Amino acid sequence: MRLLPLLVCLLACGPALAASSRPNILVIVSDDQGYNDVGFNGGKAVPTPHLDALAASGVRCTSGYVSHPFCSPTRAGLLTGRYQQRFGHENNPAYNPADAVAGLPLSEKLLPQFLKETGYKTGWIGKWHLGATPAHTPWARGFDQTYGFIGGGHAYSDWAIDVKKEYNVPLTRDGQATPEVPAHLTEAFGKEAAAFIRRNAGAPWMLYLAFNAPHTPHMPTIEREKQFADVKDPVRRKCLAQISLLDDAVGAVTKALADSGQAQDTLVFFFSDNGGTPPSLGADNTPLRGNKGMVYEGGIRVPFVVSWPAQLKAGSTYGGPVSSLDVAATALALAGAPSPSERRLDGVNLIPFLKGEDTGLPHANLFWRTGGGSSYAVRAGQWKLVRNGKQPDELYDLEADLSESKDLAAAKPELAARLASELTAWNTQLIQPLFQSPRTGKTAKKGKK
Length: 449
Description:
Number of helices: 11
Number of strands: 16
Strand order of the largest sheet: 7-6-5-4-8-1-9-10-2-11
Number of domains: 2
Helix content: 25-40%
CATH class of the largest domain: Alpha Beta
């Protein structure tokens, strides 16, 4: 009978105990950052001490991918945990507050909406790029506390506010336009994120911190650019200076975690939204082939770190294929939220894999499609099939040939055919894009199988 009071206490206190053991979730996304433009991947051109320290505190994922080779579709996949082609978000939406189609479909439920139901405080800071109507904004999609810009890019400093010009629109704070013009946007986002972390200590909380750096226009501070005066190419010099400012902003965030005693129990993801730009726009993707916009490794394999000091071994590496799609599934599992039954998640909970408890691969296959079918790729273990337009399929062994220089499709026709068949099967599950990227000039249309 003496067990009864204990049992009653456990039943009554269980949810509170569970809530106290759940980690905070911090997702940091850079924009167009080159694979080699970070120290933890071996880059030497720009010091990134804070990002390197973050990597040293957790797991560097050497086969870390995003679900698309350019901006907005990756973000749609990240926040839903689903291949964005399943719901037609395969292009960048135009900035148009009157366009109810160009954006992440309202039929999709986002990660912060799920987490709010389990008691998490939620925040978004930075770049949105997922639709501009009032119904598409982050404060309408599950984020409690918000600060940033709604379009796909923005000036970094000294802009003249213009509600009709995407890169000059006013910043918003908690759903309201603000006249603020910070000294530098990257620094401002770091400070806002640090303030969110301190303000919500003990919540638990989830913060999506989406920098627009180092996306063009490269507008570093004069002082920071001077630190790279030995770099002769002015575009490269400004890009590196902007990455340095980004690193400092991440440092402000990790300092806030440490100072508030939350570092141990915060799960941090860091990755770029896609591969770096071509060198002419400042990025370095060495040793990968291709760049932003392509389904070669340079467009989809990105700097990728997962840190959770309380649970993951510091200074470790993981070579299995992981994806930005895994963020939602991992977060839901750790928050104790059930996986949605009405929609298929394509990501997995990464923690058992990163801890070595599951020795299999997180994904048997990872898939990519752009332009409604203009290019495709599938990775299966060490093998990758690439299809560009009507060109013959290409096959690469990523373990032996990370730079995708030797096409093995003719030498291994059966393997190439198997991967092509798996790609076709996946493609049948998708719909056509609901809208086109602005520079195509095409109008939005209803997606269909």
